[in-house]
Amino acid sequence: MKLFDTPTQKYVDFTPGPVVGIYTCGITPYDSAHLGHIFTFQTYDLLQRRLEDKGHEVRLVRNITDVDEPIYKKAAELGISYIELAEQETALFQSVLTQLDFRPTYAEPRASHYIDQMAAAVTQLVAGGQAYRLDDDIYFDTTQDVSFGDFCGFSDRLQRAFMQKRGGDPSRAGKRHPLDFLLWRGVSNQQDLAAWDTALGRGRPGWHIECSVMAGELLGTPFDLHGGGDDLIFPHHECEIAQSTALGQPQLAKTWLHVAPILYAGEKMSKSLGNLVFAKDLLQDHAAAVIRLSLMKYHYRTGGEWQPEFLDEATALLQKVSAAEATCTLAASALLLSEVRAALDDDLDTHRIWHALEDFGATAAGDPATEQAAGNLTIVKNLLGFSN
Ligand SMILES: [Zn+2]
Which structural domain range is residue 336 located in? Predict the structure, then answer.
């Protein structure tokens, strides 16, 4: 199958072995999952389904970033413990994905369960001279890494802008280079409960080291494919690569596949803008297959503006498909199945899947469908996640 690889900006042959390791950056559990999240994770779910259809065993790891600054802030606002908030939101997220017929993951590691391994990785980086202390904190020294920035290919100016916007601190005084990123936050305030006693002292890991460590622990390196939203290309994934390389793992992932955002009111859905559409709300009025199919109106590399009328279009199309299913010919069912498989193999071309379903929905026949035709349609539903 062909997929579009981020660092090379090329369609590459994705031909993994019998066991496929996929790591995708998951949610920070402090607010409900919106459609942009679902769109991202559905992309990897479709990939997983097609790989399983081809006979692979897929080990998909989707982490839970339960050690991250926004959780502490939100928990303080709500007056609850950050652990309670993270647990609550993680459970809600998992229930939404189950309702939306997502395939089970191989693991959903929580950052808080890997603190010792993260502290050990940071200790190794300090010992190797690739990291340094600044007050109570520890930073990765990007001046030691000549290839820093190669993965994203962004200009220095853009890297600084994204780092500022996406949780970094390029202007902090005392850093060796503005793009040096946090590996460890020292926490001396005993009232701050989001801290662990480790060989590095009391504190918590930075966001980037969490994924490097969990991916390496669970999948080994290099694994087959690394994913996430395209806003993670820089700094998050660039930093993951820098750390893993410095830790002696020259290649983190063989292929990188990033998903573009779903916009609403012209902007990326985001908590700060308040332009969110929540999956849990859509599930009140719409079947899971309808929501999934409406998101297939967008290709993962382009995303696009959320249009609620796509839900009506998806509902109508699924009705036509279901009517055609009862009386379709074996040839029509076989054509649909081969088209869906070919579309997924062609860089997860969900537009082509829509066309294939429309063509199938327009086929008319008289006799009841044979068992073999029904079997083909069951495979199609499995490929697309239309069982709920
Ligand atoms: Zn990550």
Answer: 306-384
